[in-house]
Amino acid sequence: MERAAVYDNELNLKATELRLGLPGADESEKQSSRNNKRSSAEMDDSRDKDEQESAPAPKAQVVGWPPVRSYRKNILHQKNESDLSGIFVKVSMDGAPYLRKIDLKVYINYQDLLKALENMFKCSIGVYSEREGYDGSEFAPTYEDKDGDWMLVGDVPWDMFITSCKRLRIMKGSEAKGLGCL
Amino acid sequence: MAYSFPEEVLEYVFAFLSSHKDRNAVSLVCKSWYEIERWCRRRIFIGNCYAVSPQIVIRRFPEVRAVKIKGKPHFADFNLVPEGWGAYVYPWISAMVRSYPWLEEIKLKRMVVTDESLELLSKSFKNFKVLVLSSCEGFTTDGLASIAANCRNLRELDLRECEVEDLSGHWLSHFPDNFTSLVSLNMSCLGSEVSFSALERLVSRCPNLRTLRLNRAVPVEKLPNLLRRAPQLVEFGTGAYSAENQTDIFSNLVEAFSGCKHLKSLSGFWDVDPAYLPAMYYACTGITSLNLSNATVQSPDLVELIIQCPNLKCLWVLDYIEDAGLKALPSYCKDLQELRVFPSDPYGAEPNVSLTEQGLVTVSAGCPKLQSVLYFCRQMSNAALITIARNRPNLIRFRLCIIDPQAPDYLTLEPLDTGFGAIVEHCKELLRLSMSGLLTDRVFEYIGTHAKKLEMLSIAFAGDSDLGLHNVLSGCESLRKLEIMDCPFGDKALLANAAKLETMRSLWMSSCSVRRCPSSNVEVMDERGHPDSRPETCPVEKLYIYRTVAGPRVDKPNFVWTMDEDAVLRLS
Questions:
Q1: Which residue among A23, A63, A84 places its CB closest to the CB of B80?
Q2: Which of B221-238 are b and which e, b meaning 16 or more Cβ less than 10 Å from the residue's Cβ?
């Protein structure tokens, strides 16, 4: 039971949970998760090791932490052919009054990108599955590719995605149903 | 009164004062000094573009030749300031075009610069010489083409860590054939390939070129040709430092580097093939500054290069250097003054390199001139911090980032309060401090008590209550910039220290517990809607407080609200 709770803090599953309530109304939960972070540091080593084995993904990322400039974030994943200039795409969300612009180069994988979008738009996008897409989530991320088609984010390998994505649109879950099934 | 010096004499004397602080002090002596000083001030520094308006600056200083302006708060570097917040340079440029036709120099940091601004600048200032854009954004390579084509007397074009929309490399070819005045070119942040022949011709015809920082797209094969044409170079940044199996390259590089007898600074080094590093060894004896923060090369090769530089003063490197590599610095680079170690994998769950607090401890012990540190690591202890503080009381900048937020002392599991306390207690000249790890209100007691010269403080995930913030605001006499993220600080400390805020350039607080704002000139950034539209108990997302004589901003986006005095009265 406790172990599951600690696992939860590592991946911050709460942030992807579907729930009712105004956006940004999770301040109290954020406070308590911060307190939990303190207590998890006091746990003994053996439990920490178990956590590492069952939670291989990077820890949930806080915007702005660690304080690393965008162009330094992907040092480990740099390839010869990639350059420093960003891949800037516009992001719209159904119901939001204005668009945002993000640099896809800054993110290392889909999880990284979706977390950032959730933070930026204060929405919950949920977890991708090949069969169901984002079925069950309030919002689903979609993108327009080089051919002008609207695709579901997550279907193609990450590197292919960032080179073919022209713009993003976070659709209401109900509308995205059509994209999820073939 | 007939007893004062003639104006010309005073002007002559004032010309020797180069620091802005001194010139400001001089202007306060008396009315006639104020008048004389303002007419002969040639260089202006504006630390916050919203603290003053272009009109006010121009009215006071009519004969300015060089301007330096800073825009967005520092945390914008880490994506904490939403896009569209502001810091547009266009209003400044259009005002200066009318009033400073002989402007020579513009240096900007964290500002939004459009192609339109660059074009206007390039066509209006006939004697324009220096353009330095640091962490700026909003322009494309078309804007650079205007600069190249129109600024006949350009000496410096320095793009540092800018976000440029890269349409093509063609901009470089816009420098006219009779353009020979270039002294410094830094294009390292650009992506596209420029025409190599245009670059070579440019380098050949500019005999005063001393700084050349290439971008990643310039392959290592092209370096010898460039270096041979500019053996007088003092600062050089390579492009990608690897090539497909070509045997001539190494010997050409050796020859070219040995011809550069004046090199003091090296940077670039993307995609390093370690086999090519030794080609530089001949150039290393004079090197004082080495930026290897793009070099994803492992420790032995990395260290081999660094130890060739006995005069090294400034080293920027990735954590691939590891503790073992840092251990070599005291023996080979005894004059080291500045060390920055960046993380190669900041988001990895596990450490990927063997770099711990020990590396920093050994450098602090063996490099007596070390005064400026930026260090990313994954573990720290109070003992290590205390040792560092005792070893290096001459530190003036200490920025430590322990990657896991709220990580405690890994040996004792206690907060790192005493460690950072030792830093501020021993390092009496400390100007800048960034802290991380598990920290309680106690560390702020130490800071308020000891950090009397501290000008800039950055805090994240620290403290327990308003008392922490109160100690900083009431104790740190020299504090100018304070930036806070994710700390449980609220209204009380701000209200109790409202007067202090007016002595500071700015205060940034994001993801804290602030509900009420203490005074005017407060910007609240909240993408969820107006602060009034949410329950009173709900804290604001981001707060940015700065002093200004310019009044409320006219260019606010719709997610920024400035709190006026009426609003404060109404809320309470």
A1: A63
A2: bbbbbbbbbbeebbbbbb
| Residue matched to tokens 């950032």 | A116
Residue A33 pLDDT class (50, 70, 90 cuts): very low
Name the DSSP class of A129.
Answer: B
Residues 95-154 of chain A with CB under 8 A from chain B are 97-98, 100-101, 103, 106, 108, 112, 122
Q: What is the ipTM of this complex?
A: 0.87
Q: Are B326 and B306 a contacting pair, CB within 8 Å?
A: no
Express each pLDDT in B142-189 by its tens digit. 999 999 999 999 999 999 999 999 888 899 999 999 999 999 999 999
Indicate the residue of A52, A101, A106 with minimum beta-carbon distance to B349: A52
Please check whether residue A55 touches B, CB under 8 A: yes
Taking an 8 Å cut-off on Cβ atoms, the answer to whether B217 and A83 are in contact is yes
CB B292 within 8 A of CB B316: yes
Q: Which of B127, B117, B118, B15 is CA-nearest to residue B65?
A: B127
- The string of pLDDT tens digits covering residues B305-359 is 999 999 999 999 999 999 999 999 999 999 999 999 999 999 888 899 999 999 9
Contact at CB, B75 and A64, closer than 8 angstroms: yes
Instruction: Using CA coordinates, name the residue in chain B closest to A67.
Output: B78
- Substitution target in B79, B167, B537 with the highest count of A β-carbons within 10 Å is B79
Q: Provide the token pair at B457.
A: 């403080």
